[in-house]
Amino acid sequence: xxxxxxxxxxxxxxxxxxxxxxxxxxxxxxxxxxxxxxxxxxxxxxxxxxxxxxxxxxxxxxxxxxxxxxxxxxxxxxxxxxxxxxxxxxxxxxxxxxxxxxxxxxxxxxxxxxxxxxxxxxxxxxxxxxxxxxxxxxxxxxxxxxxxxxxxxxxxxxxxxxxxxxxxxxxxxxxxxxxxxxxxxxxxxxxxxxxxxxxxxxxxxxxxxxxxxxxxxxxxxxxxxxxxxxxxxxxxx
Length: 237
Hints:
Number of strands: 0
Radius of gyration: 17 Å
Strand content: under 5%
Number of helices: 16
Structural class: mainly alpha
């Protein structure tokens, strides 16, 4: 797909002005993704899990929306931790769907296989928050996006992460935000390729075991900076 930098710049400005406009994220991704989806889809199809998941036409979204089933999983499992995470954050698994598909032509330029891959990748987003250890606050989003760029090579994600990290660093005066985002990227480079994991099966496994299996290092810089920023917010006026 042809990149559209001017469209991306306009959407980036709008996103910086109002971070709640989640649909801007998908405008940026469309504008800068290039061949990232096609390349990722081809790689996905060549993996054992990817081929099986595509053949079965699984819906990860449907699995994640079944919170009653996830609550029946063992305490400490990825599925239980996921439910606790999204309920604390006040988000739903289908929230990204509404944002990403607000434009009826969102997947019109993709083949059926590419659209399946793109949707499944989208539906993994909050799971990646959980397994990586990043919150849904702006700083946590910047880090998970940096991680995701390392995994998907989508330049739109790099742009979002860089602009977001600079904005937060300026607002807080903490340059550790930039170093934490860089560490998140490096963790993503060294981890297993998360798009081709059997997430439906991993939901029942202990979260620590999942992190070990996927070679996910602890985001130590994020943890330190997040603790500093939280302490500042909690100081009495």
